Amino acid sequence: MKTVNIHEAKTHLSRLVDQAAAGEPFVIAKAGKPMVKVAPLSARQGAQVKRLGFLAGQITVPDDFNEMGAAEIERLFGDVP
After folding, report:
1. Strand (E) or helix (H) holding 11
2. Is the pTM higher than 0.90?
3. Rounded distance, CA 81 to CA 77, Å?
4. What distance in Å separates the CA atoms of residue 51 and residue 59, rounded to the nearest whole number?
5. Distance of CA 3 to the CA centre of its chain
């Protein structure tokens, strides 16, 4: 993603906004520190992105998942206080 300094953003705002609207978001930085991200309104926002449960029904977890490898873990770390 392209990063521009605040002076460049002020100078070329119209062009940068057109590019962002066309699907090329950019970051505006002040003194080299990223401050804001400019993206088209049609872009999915963080709150719209659903992550939990996206593999529901596609994977299974074994019933003994919490005990898997217990003997190996005990062998490796059994004497640690």
Report:
1. helix 6-11
2. no
3. 9
4. 15
5. 17
- In CATH, the number for domain 1-40 is 3.40.1620.10
Residues in the chain: 81
**Both ends of the chain: CA-CA distance in Å?**
47
9 near 37, Cβ under 8 Å? no
- In tens, the pLDDT along 12-65 reads 999 999 999 998 999 999 999 999 999 998 756 666 667 778 888 898 888 999
Q: Per-residue DSSP letters for 58-72?
A: T----TTGGGTTHHH
The neighbour count for residue 57, using CB atoms within 10 Å, is 6
Q: Dihedral (C-alpha) 29, 30, 33, 37: value to the nearest 10 degrees? A: -30
Task: Identify residue 28 by its one-letter amino acid code.
Answer: I
